[in-house]
Amino acid sequence: MGLFSFIKNAGAKVFGIGKTDAEEAAEAKADASAAKLKRETDAANRLEVTVSDLKLEAKNLKVKIDGDTATIHGMAYDQATREKIILVVGNSNGIAVVDDQMTVEHQEPEAEFHTVVSGDTLGKIAKKFYGNANKYPLIFDANKPMLTHPDKIYPGQVLRIPAMDKA
Fold first, then answer.
1. Taking residues 129-148, what's their average pLDDT?
2. DSSP assignments along the chain, one per residue
């Protein structure tokens, strides 16, 4: 007799010992998938809590995250609340797209949105949208409670710009 050579991971599991490369790969993929789902579910739950903590009124709010996309369901009290919820979710790290599936209990006009660029101030944004830099408090108030101070905005942040008569 002598030694016989085999390909270590090519065979099937015998007597419960070892796994094939394909079995190990399938298990690793399933583990990674489960871990990703848990991370996304945890992040969605944290966003729901954040919306609640900010006292943004929405019935049956549900956030689902898939990769860099968040889908929001529920009924917001009004359009401003709906838009603020979208901003809370969308301005969160890791979220690139918000799929808004929310409804609104009390209809009102939609606001415009502005993505802050380097050098922007609320005054400059107010000048652009309203023709008057002194109207910046309208933008600040429309973005509370996400904004805590008029000078604390950052590039990439998205802000609500309400119509002047519906601040």
1. 94
2. -------TTTSPPBTTB---HHHHHHHHHHHHHHHHHHHHHHHHHHHHHHHHHTT--EEEEEEEEETTEEEEEEEEEEHHHHHHHHHHHHTSTT--EEEE--EEEE--PPPEEEE--TT--HHHHHHHHHS-GGGHHHHHHHTTTT-SSTT---TT-EEEE--GGG-
Q: Are 94 and 77 in contact (CB under 8 A)?
A: no
Taking residues 9-17, what's their average pLDDT? 56
The CATH label, of 2.40.30.10, 3.40.50.11930, 3.10.350.10, 3.40.50.970, for the domain at 110-167 is: 3.10.350.10
Place of tokens 């802000």: 159
pLDDT at residue 61, rounded to an integer:
97
Average pLDDT over residues 81-100: 93
Mean pLDDT across the chain: 88
pTM of the model: 0.76
Which of 3.30.230, 2.60.40, 3.30.750, 3.30.300 is the CATH number of 20-108?
3.30.300
